Amino acid sequence: GGWSSGQGFSQMSMMAIKGTGFLNVMFAAAIFCCIVPLAAVEPLEAENKTLPATEGLKKFTIEELHGYNGHDKDKPVLVALKGKVFDVTSETRFYVPGKPYAQFSGRDITRSTAMFSTAVEDLDRFDYPKEKEEYFEKIFEGTYVRKYPIVGELLPYESKIPEPSPSSPDDVPARAKELGSDMIKSWLTSFFQYVGIMSPGETKRELR
Q1: What single string gives the DSSP state of each residue in 46-63?
Q2: What share of the chain has pLDDT > 70, as a percent?
């Protein structure tokens, strides 16, 4: 039995196919080895990108921050949350003088945001109940970090916690203040619904 050209071509074809299959397997294995390490570090990189770096940015004292309240046209309008200073100048409908949230401008509004409050006694304070943490982080990340540039850091300061004042249920001024607070909360509700951070159901639940 001699070696026929047909048999030789057939065997060579089978060897080529087997060789190609081996190369495909090796190529796939190489790609897999490269992709898996990248996939492992991707969540960490995404997490680091959530909050922009503040190294090299201006350090504000609380007194300096008060000067960026929108009354000086040559200065930006700033607010602080969680030690980060945000430039909110672009939001002319809310933070400039005469607008609904002008009292927040140039202030640390960490507690105000967590407590969903516009009370003066909650400004320039960073303390708030632990149960408010999830709500605060939603607003901090979803509104401020997402919408406004971070332009600096707020240096540590002594937060002045006001003494609680006794009041009776028949105290008319206290009731008037409560009604005014309800009206402003209604404005805040509309604001958070407008920026798309909270749905109508969520805002109603928070106000209870």
Answers
A1: HHHTSS---TTSEEEPHH
A2: 52
Domains and CATH numbers, the chain: 63-162 (3.10.120.10)
DSSP 161: P
User: Where does 74-202 show beta strands of DSSP type E?
Assistant: 78-81, 84-87, 150-154
- Compute the radius of gyration of the chain from its Cα atoms: 30
Task: Specify the pLDDT at position 165.
Answer: 58
pTM given for the model: 0.57
Given a cut of 70, the residues of the chain with pLDDT beneath it are 1-54, 163-208
Six-digit token pair at 110? 């960490």
Q: Return the SS3 of 88.
A: coil
Instruction: List the structure tokens of 118.
Output: 């516009």
